[in-house]
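Changelog excerpt

This revision adds worked examples to the README so contributors can see how folded entries look when concatenated. The first example is reproduced verbatim below.
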Amino acid sequence: MTMAIPSFTVETRTRASTLSAAAIIALLLLAFAAPFIVSRGVIQDLFFILTMLVLAQNWNLLAGYAGLISVGQQVFVGFGAYTMFGCVLFGIDPVVAILIAGLFSVALAIPTAFFTFRLYGPYFAIGTWVVAEVVRLLLAQWKALGGGTGTSLPRDATRDMMGVGAMRDVFGMKASQAGDALTYWLALILVVATIGFIYGLLRSKQGLGLAAVRDNEQAARAVGVDARRMKTLVYLATAFMTGIAGALIYVQKARISPDAAFSVTDWTAYVIFIVVIGGIGTIEGPILGVIIFFLLQNLLADYGSWYLLMLGLLGIAIMLFAPRGLWGLFSERTGIQLFPVRRVLKGGPLNLTHRGGPHG
């Protein structure tokens, strides 16, 4: 007896993603060569774009995929930065201190999650902001790091940090140029690691569970998804990467103060704006959003307070007319996805021959 039964396969890769992979590799090679090609000012601009992209991707993972709308992510930027400063004052190399800052940010996120995960919706958002303010006020009392006025890194700390001496000897760079190139390369590596981690997570079984939790937490629990565990893992992962980004930013800045390190405008409001205009719930959205934000910042920064007003009006307009962001609008009309995570069910008939017994 021969019968046809449907055979299905689940695919995520698209033709556009296959073509874009080669372009991304070429772009990364060009990006790594940038310190030898462009000026120091351009490298500093690229560093800003890369670090803001890391913050945006992490906030997008929290809000767009885990459904955790946080307005207190600046707590991990500031805490990571202050941890790095404290480590450097104890004689630890800044590069090593950046990794330690990520670990300390995870340590802070554990009790933070214990408190905030008991809150839901807008209460969770307010709770994360309250935690950030409490940590800011506590660190403002730390006299060894300048208290409320802040402090600067010792000049020798960045001049002699790991890798700078080798870059001076091998490439003939000045100390300041080598320091900028090193922090830029670290930021580029962090971007690749962040996007790679998020993309890998979303394509895994855990990514399916995360999407289920975001869409309907009670339904996800009903089919066996441990919603609290998924949210906690995402929260800790974003704390780690955000803490590293904060430490890296302030290695490059070389000066810190509580108000700057825990600025809700710089490290949360701008990040939310980047994700919203680019497209929440997509990997491509924050990439597009950070480029638009950088261009707008350079074009409108001379307008003073009108600059913030224009950013706000643009954000409102996009939320009204393109709720999925600019990339979401583009992808919806073209079907192009550079980092496809949606699973497409494809299938056709599969002929199987069944040989039965004397009666079959």
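The second example, added in the same revision:
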Amino acid sequence: MSKYRTPGVYIGESSSFPPSVKQVETAIPAFIGYTEKGPSEPMRIRSMVEYQNLFGGAAGEIGRFKINHDGSIDSPVIPDTPKYRLYYSLQLFFNNGGIDCYIISAGNYDDPIQNSDLEKGLKLLGKLDEPTLILLPDGYENPYDLYTQALAQCAARKDRFLICDVKHAAGANNPIQKSAEEFRFGIGSNNLMFGAAYYPNLKTIMTYQYSQDQIDVEVEDAPHVKVLRHSDETISANGEKKEESLYHASDGTYMMKYNQIKKEIDSVKLTLPPSGAIAGVYAMVDHSRGVWKAPANVSLNGVVAPQVVISNVDQNDLNVTASGKSINAIRSFPGRGVMVWGARTLAGNDNEWRYIPARRFFNMVEESVKKATERFVTEPNDANTWTKIKAMIENYLNTLWRAGALAGAKPDDAYFVKLGLGETMSAQDIQQGKMIIVIGMSVLKPAEFTILRYSHKMAEA
């Protein structure tokens, strides 16, 4: 029945533009690990300052120094790899182009590192929609159960990707081969297309981050031995407070010792798993070139050298192996720096999903189209709706093709969208409320092997 009943002029507006697909973000990693403090719920941050305000600083893992009666200093063995790695991995992420990320605190530094805590963090991550990369820097020592659970989450959601650190097999005769063997045995064979692995660890320019009150110093002051910290103080005979720490000694003796100790701590350069730096590379390449560009042939910032020197021969088995579990090498090249020199997923022998950009590109398109088509749920399952949806998806894919994300000289070669009765659906499908859309894309593959062929040219008269 007409709604117009009173004489007059009525204005109506009709939409002349088809609905559009809003592309989802592609490089928002979730770091799961241990923090000094902070909220138990996941938090999105954009800088180290924001992280420190919410989650605190790095762990005090320096050990105890001793000042002997003769003034000499006994130093602890300061490891070049910290026990709690999330803080430093986050620094690598921002140094290499990272912008936004999520932090999921699995516990505090007073807690021992346990897979059960990190698994709880993974479950929290499973409830979030925005993260697209998973990192577990504090699971480095015993990561395989965590990695298989993370890969299962990636496969179930199809909107995220796992970056794995390959643990270094220290002391082995052939550490490269041994590290690869242990990783491939532990990672299993399920959902490999949703993750990528990197080796070796990275020697960085970073040093331990600590506050003064995290330095313990035992002073041999006969007949007593005392431990001094930044906040220590005693009460003198007249009731006045007197500082007794290294930093407030009235005679300045301890201040000199403190400077010696601090110099020794700062001389230790950290060696870290590569996942934080790799996540930064993913973010930088995605923003500058697009998710379809392989995150490889890119130099790393803040990195001096890989922990292990990898040659072409060494990389042969890492990159292409009978198991298909490819491991991407990080190598040093004279005049070029430390480079990411591989772009394969863990499904390295899979013709469809062997390359990281192919898997992550499909993740992006699938998630973007899924969110865009949600508005059509409960709309009439008829030709009018099909036309709108098909035009919306084709416009989106055409934009990607023009940006260079899809192969093909013309749109018909690059993609197709099928939707309709007799084409993708039967009458029974429509009766059951099903709307079936079929999308095909000719995704680009990276030029992994550039082969130059030469021949002699015969002289011409």
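Reviewer comment on example two: The CA atoms of residues 288 and 365 lie 18 Å apart. The first strand starts at residue 29 and ends at 35.
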